[in-house]
Design a protein that fits this description.
The protein has 10 helices and 16 strands. With 348 residues, the protein is an alpha/beta fold. The longest helix has 15 residues, at 119-133. The protein binds S-adenosylmethionine. S-adenosylmethionine (SAM) is lined by residues 176-178, 201-202, 204-208, 224-227, 230, 250-252, 268, 270.
């Protein structure tokens, strides 16, 4: 039940960068009102009074932490650990799920990278947790994790990790498949109105399709890919859904579709990193076909490598760029573009 825990607590969630403008709404749409205190690249700090499980299950974020202490100008981990050791902290044991006999470790994250600290600093951080919560340190395979975080924006936190292998959505990721967090954020960002006919012509392992199905807001979904193995996987996952069409088809020849039959295209085409394709020619051929099947005023959302010159590729086409954002896909720089198909001009 939403908002059944009355006391508001401060949480920190990490998400894929590029979605700072929409993350607050995306979270609020899923779990009810939150009060954002700070949003930085890939991180939101917010107050929430509902059940922590709602936060743990969020599909739009990666790690979520309960904030135990904030540092406005963190200099180094040893000072933070000293300050924490001297503080009386309020630990909401229920939120943290702490049980008798649980073990823990303390981790140190500096600008999103794990960081080593001196043995003495580690020991005092562990002593604080053991003393306050009667937990046993286990640096290799602990039940619980406490994190000291220093961000590049020069803010710091002492936190408890809430999402340690707990979310079902975050399990079972396949290499090459978009992560559920990124796919959910792209869909949220795309703002495709409900009850539309949507197509992913490069569906792969179904990263976007999985999340579209969970969000359940489309009328029909067309999923294509050129590889039989991927099509079989999609059948296996989604083949029982009546409003989903799955077909092995080349995105440049969508023969099964009639002109102007699709309201929105949302897709993650090949980037040319592994395939031997002429990227510009491949994208041009694909765009000709997408524009044939896309309705006038329909949306096209593309996730592409930042190395691909989309401005140049779309130049000859009746497309208006409506939004774009820079993001990262497995650490690689990428751009998400949102276009609208313009009506044909009489002499075009
Ligand atoms: C970047 S991957 C998409 C990954 C997908 N978003 C996922 O979550 O699994 C690009 C996909 O395009 C497919 N592909 C490559 N050339 C194609 C073509 N001409 N027509 C249709 N699919 C193609 C590849 O098989 C691959 O699955």
């Amino acid at each position: 039940m939403k908002n059944s825990h009355r006391e508001s607590r401060t949480y920190i969630s990490m998400f894929v960068p590029g979605f700072e403008n929409i993350i607050e709404n995306a979270i609020a749409r899923r779990i009810g009102p939150i009060q954002a205190k700070q949003i930085n690249s890939g991180m939101i700090v917010y107050m929430y009074g509902g059940s922590p499980q709602e936060i743990i299950d969020l599909d739009v974020v990666k790690n979520t932490f309960l904030c135990l202490q904030t540092f406005s100008d963190p200099v180094d981990f040893s000072k933070m650990v000293r300050q924490v050791s001297e503080s009386r902290l309020n630990y909401p044991a229920q939120v943290m799920g702490i049980g008798r006999g649980h073990s823990f470790r303390v981790r140190y994250s500096y600008a999103n990278q794990f960081h080593k600290v001196a043995a003495g600093v580690m020991k005092s951080a562990e002593n604080k947790v053991s003393r306050d919560l009667c937990l046993t340190p286990n640096r290799v395979n602990p039940d619980l994790e406490f994190w000291y975080i220093i961000r590049s924006e020069k803010i710091g936190f002492y936190t408890f990790l809430l999402t340690r292998g707990t979310s079902s959505v975050k399990a079972g990721e396949t290499k090459g498949k978009l992560t559920p967090e990124l796919a959910s954020l792209i869909i949220e960002w795309a703002q495709i109105p409900p009850n539309k006919t949507i197509m992913d012509p490069f569906a792969g392992y179904g990263g976007l399709a999985d999340r579209l199905v969970s969000l359940n807001s489309f009328k029909r979904l067309f999923l294509f890919d050129i590889e039989s193995e991927k099509i079989q996987g999609l059948y296996h996952q989604l083949g029982d859904k009546k409003n989903i069409v799955i077909k092995k088809q080349d995105a440049r020849f969508l023969n099964s579709l009639t002109p102007e039959s699709i309201d929105a295209v949302i897709t993650d085409p090949p980037w040319g990193s592994y395939e031997s394709i002429d990227v510009e020619q491949f994208y041009t051929e694909t765009l000709i076909e997408i524009l044939r099947v896309l309705k006038t005023h329909g949306k096209m959302i593309l996730l592409v490598s930042e190395r691909i010159d989309m401005d140049r590729i779309v130049f000859p086409f009746p497309l208006r760029l409506t939004n774009r954002t820079n993001t990262l896909v497995n650490g690689k720089k990428a751009i998400i573009y949102s276009y609208q198909k313009l009506p044909r001009t009489p002499n075009a």
